[in-house]
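pasting for ref
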Amino acid sequence: MNPAGSVLLCSLSLFQPGPVAAQAFHRLDGQVLTAAEVDRLAARAMAAARVPGLGLALIEGGRVVYLKAYGWRDLDRQLPLTPDSVMAAASLSKAAFAYAVMQMVDERVLELDCPIMDYLPRPLPAYPRYADLAGDLRWERITPRMLLAHTSGLPNWRRYMDGGRLAIYFEPGTRFAYSGEGMDLLQLVVETVEGRPLEEVMARRVFRPLGMTRSSMVWEARFETDAAQGHNNAGKGLGPQRRRRAGAAGSLQTTLADYARFLEAVISGRGLSVEAREAMLSPQVRIRSAHEFPTLDPTTTTANEGIRLGYGLGWGLYQTPWGRAFFKEGHDDGVRHYALCLDGPGKGLLIMTDGERGEDLYSELLEDLLGNTLTPLEWEGFKARKR
């Protein structure tokens, strides 16, 4: 075992209790887990995955009933992770952005099925970032609904495509293909309609109303005193992400405690009309792709027909014996996160890790803490527990 691994195993007894630590949590199958059992299962999963730090929130009856941080936010300096340690949220940002967009839909300042061209003062290719789309009029058919549901035909990121050019790869609205570019395009629309930058939009619509006091779409100096850095597979620290430009697809800086508050709001419907919340968490497209990434691979499968895998507006969706489940993953250099909620029983699980091995513990924690074995982890490219 390398030295970093040795330190990590010793660190598992270190945790920072959050403001909420229930005496028991009820799994979906009715099994009761005590606080000590939750800690034991978390420590076992961390040791197996060799993750420096883990933030864990459990939701029951629509409320956070268990909130703890384990391990280190900085392995080299042995600084403990806390529920208020600021972490790069990666693609968990997309779900928070979708929530803000649905508020705009509620207010009728944005229509889901109105082409984005109706909101922009210039044709999209007239914007330098979208000049590559000149000559392809399919951009005129793209709507906010398509961008939130990842059916726009845009790639995940142009930098991964031949020549690094942006293009539309299929008829908008006809199939699912996860797209960070799509979220960035919707950000342009939102900023144009709101007349203010995204960081202000999110602060006004999401962070301040929900009490997310340590969240921002850009780095803030006040985060320095308790910030988690990402760690690579060898446990080497990569430093905190100090993003200066807001990006709807992945620039959110947040904490375990703050993002758990956001999940509470989504479960309860706080901040949205009943109709807007239902639209957000209703299937916009059925997913039959063999895997989520690479996004444009045309290979299909029937493996997820039983759970009716689909995508809503900013959230992945599937059906369970306990009703609708909605989920979102976050993946960036040195951080791995996972959020899953079940609408019917109001249960949920939030996993936030500051290590690139973090996705190796998703399956174990989803099964051991929630009793849920239906999450389509293999479709998402994650390891599923062998049976």
